[in-house]
Amino acid sequence: MMDLSAAKTETSPPQAFDSVLIANRGEIALRVQRACRELGLKTIMICSEADRDADYLRSADTTICIGPASPGQSYLNKAAILLAMRLTGAGAVHPGYGFLSESAAFSEAVEEAGAVFIGPSADAIRTMGDKIAAKKAMMEAGVPCVPGPDSALPEDLAEVRKIAAEIGYPVIVKAAGGGGGRGMRVVRDEASLSDAVLVTREEARRAFGTPELYIEKFLQHPRHVEIQVLCDNHGGAVWVGLRDCSMQRRHQKIVEEGPAIGIPPDVAAFVGNRCVEACRQIGYRGVGTFEFLYEDGEFYFIEMNTRLQVEHPVTEMTSGVDLVRQQLLVALGQPLDITQADVVCNGHSIECRINAEDPYNFTPSPGLITGVQLPGGPGIRIDTHVTAGYRVPTHYDSLIAKLIVHAPTREQAIIRMRRALAEMQIDGVSTNLQLHREILDDPAFAEGGTDIHHLEHWLAARGAK
Ligand code: MV4
Questions:
Q1: How far is the CA of 146 from the centre of ligand 1 (A)?
Q2: Of the residues 169, 192, 217, which one is the last residue of a structural domain?
């Protein structure tokens, strides 16, 4: 068992804990549980009725079934999770990604119940959830943003026309409550502006409970490049390299890699340092990701994610920083034991998200996994909760494994990923393994630096064959 006395005396006394409730499922629940184990923290895993027989739950010290399969009644059910916390005496809650990971209300409820929410403050979550407030905070901190006002669009359409004309078409109208690709509309000319604003406003009102919109220059061929940050509760903050997540389909990332190639190190360092400065200004705590569009050598901030991300292993492989361990240490009140100078990224890492889905039409393929063959050898990491005999439930995301490789160069990482994908086999359900093999053989991917539209164009061409 870890000695928590240092954490207790160093910082605000109520922070220390010796058990963590993992409010998530699947591979990320297992990832968090592994980090807890290494720190001597007791683990409490919640599960739904659909997950209760899964093998990965047996690695926890305690498992508690909190409700039916439907996410609203289990992994999104705040009251049920708070009850599980109380019943098990959990000292902290790790939300993983998705589900309640970016719910300010949940983090507040956890803290009101006397436990530690492993993540940033409810205030920080709320600010970043409001995309206008987030942009305003970033502009104030000197983080480069997409051209456009850092305020809500006025109701008056003549005013809106003036703002759009100043930015220059094409523009994009986005909902303040949106994010991740939800609630946005591209506007190519003034003739389509007012309809686009009115429709997006109504959608926003319905979907996000607020009609607030903002407007930006629409960038036509950017890459999606993101910067990982890590902050403690004592003013310590570092950025931990860049990832390129441009290989996506319908806002679902398929392949991620780090570092983002072709970006001059001084430019990356400049933007990384602005992100760290922004974190200090807003009193950010824990891990976070600054999402940028990168076009013609320039960075443009779009959103900040206040959670641990699916693709965090890419950064762990290149930097050697265990981000989940760091999350736990920060939540325990410890100051970061690394400075920016200690963060040195080496080599290249690529992650393939292995989904149980049809490799051509992308529909989910739940069911019984009858066989699993995992690749191994140098530079291979697999984050998965599945084994032969595991049944992929119908109710959740289709991610069943993350295959991550690390090698000295990008070229070698690609060769290693091809080799690993050739070794890997999953039987019983359809997976996108074959899709990944084809992507890794795509000459444009091998060249690198493809934009956010490349994969969808490539898929359309593949489908036409
Ligand atoms: C944009 C954009 C172009 N210009 N904003 C989509 C998800 C959300 N995070 C923001 N998104 C975009 N915002 C401006 N001003 C293009 C996208 C976008 C995108 C961004 C990242 C990754 C994939 C994408 C796919 C389509 C559109």
A1: 11
A2: 217
